[in-house]
Amino acid sequence: MCSPSLSRTSRTIGAKRRGFVLVPALLLGLVFISCAAAFAWFSRLQVKGALREKTALESRSMAQVLTLSFISAFKAARSAYDSPTQAWFKPVLFPAGELGTWGVRLTPLDDKIPLRSLFLPDGNTLRSELRRTWEALWEKLEKRELSGLVLDFMDSDSRPRVGGSEREGHINRPLLDMSEFLLLEEMTPGLLYGEKGKLGVADYVTLWSGGKVNLNVAPVHVVEILPGLNRTQAENIAAFREKEALKGPDSLRAVPGFPARAIPALMNLAAFGSRYFSIQIEPLDGEVDLGVRFAVVFDKTSGAIVWWEEF
Hints:
Layout: H1 4-77, E1 92-95, E2 101-108, E3 113-114, H2 128-140, H3 147-154, H4 189-193, E4 205-206, E5 213-214, H5 220-223, H6 231-243, H7 249-253, H8 263-266, E6 270-271, E7 276-285, E8 294-299, E9 305-310
Parallel strand pairs: 3-4, 5-6
Antiparallel strand pairs: 1-2, 2-7, 7-8, 8-9
């Protein structure tokens, strides 16, 4: 027969064993509960991710449909001039069911000095009609000493021009993006994009141009440095085109104070229509928050999309 002390010891050991068994069971239960909660959380994330992906695909498809429709319709219009006063360039609303209402705005570009058309076909010789305007640009920026350097940065050869300099690291080709200018030591972000109320290089030049400046959309600070024009005449052009589109040289003659002698010099550089256009597309309301906008640039001549950005 077991002694009372031995019996108590056995019961204590048994209780401890049951306790040891109970603790792993509780821990295992907590693990299962945690795993279940984590799986549920992961599943919700997956569902939300799938919905976001579905929504992103739907919104991208909508943007593509709107873009191609606008390009096709606009090319068919065959307008000889492009001005914000035309109905084409007013904001348009498109209902799209669950995707809500979308806003689309078409804008003519070719509004600044054409960076990719600075040179003659040899890739080195600056176009004569652009020489005075190019120099005036750098004078306005108070960086006249950079005029030749920037040309050497972009031209196709490795020979320095008068007032310029060829260096290791020069791209010696047309720019792919405006930010490539920052490869030049002298080109700071402030000089390129402007700062403290001052204009920058990017306010005067564009990558998207058929080689001429559309007087219907060019800002005053660009128009005033075109051959034969000054600030007052540029402001007069801007005031006139707000009421009536500039359709050709005869329209310029109707601008108050416009010097008729400037027309021959302008005709090699100024235009009244654009080759490149931007399309801004954004959802305005809907059952799903799409949270995405689209910016597109297309070439009217070919109908090709040359730039697509989502943000």
